[in-house]
Amino acid sequence: MANNTSEPLSHLMMRYPSRTAILEEFSPVGPMAERIVPPFWYFIGFIGNPISATIWLGQRMRRNNSSAIYLGALSISDMLFLFLHLLHILHVAWGHDLYNAPTSCEIYHFLFYVPQYLSTFLVLGFTAERYVAVCHPFMKEKWCTVRRAIVIVFILIVFSMALASAQAYIWTYSEHEGTCNIRPEAAEGNAWSFWNIWSWATDVFAFGLVPLVVLVFNILVLREIFKISRNDLVKRQQSRSGNSTASTFTLLAVSFYLIVTQVSATLVGCLQQAFPNGNPLMTDEEIRNDSTWSNLFTYLEVRKVIEVICLSHYACYFFIYCLTGKHFRKEVMFLLTFHGRLPFLTALVSKRRGKERYSMVSTNGGLMSETYTTNASTAI
Question: What is the tally of structural domains in the chain?
Fold first, then answer.
């Protein structure tokens, strides 16, 4: 795939048709990982996220369960991101010009960042709510309501759109190169350019600082759980709410999963400045033997592998819900039986589901009332 390697003064960007072609020549593991791994997440996410959204936003789950609003919105946001990422992979890795055009370039990059920001903020939202419910139970009746959760989700959507709006300025279609590229005005100043400063600041805030705040909330929640587990309060609470531990564990598992994946991808991305480009006028053979270029291409391969693996959190929350949520599993079975229309599975589901009402964080007047109760009004 190399071109004009005998011309030492030929610029690297002039010898290859695109940056992807350069990476395929000198750093093939990255493009290969980008083509192989994400389709697994698309397959899982395009099935699991709609099911999760349907269950969490269903009347039975969201009626007295403010956390269900966050989780339902999270499922929709993740599904949107996976769709946009699919377009990105088709464009970058497979060479299909899906948004290489004026206006569509700017709109795409704006939309591409909105669900990334929103998913992180939604996890922060229900984690903060869980902190209030566990550590300040007497404030739960005021702050942990379905109505308030809907308002907060709307505010987070607007805030995410505001943060992402800068991408519509940073990116533009270059008629000269025929590609969607960084706007020259946004790239002026190199390390101190608007593009570099804005990207660094927003990435550190949304994908570094926010997950760390989530971690702090989780630590406080775990500490409070361990503290109250030493007295009879938990025993009395568990007699009223057998699903308390399970529901808390579900939310903790989701937020810890986000922390591990998001922080890992952010940290490896922040190391970009430590690996500068080499001399672009070198021949291909000189580039392969140059330590600066070799370090950069090795870094890019490692970074891409980590990034595509960390994309899993946009697709795999469904498995966490199924593994940690007994009621969620029942709802999945209910959907799979087409709302009880399959006779050989209907009995299995209906015996356990008919009169249940589930709440992770509800406002039913009980102390730390994460309840799993029966109510005749909810019978199917």
Answer: 1
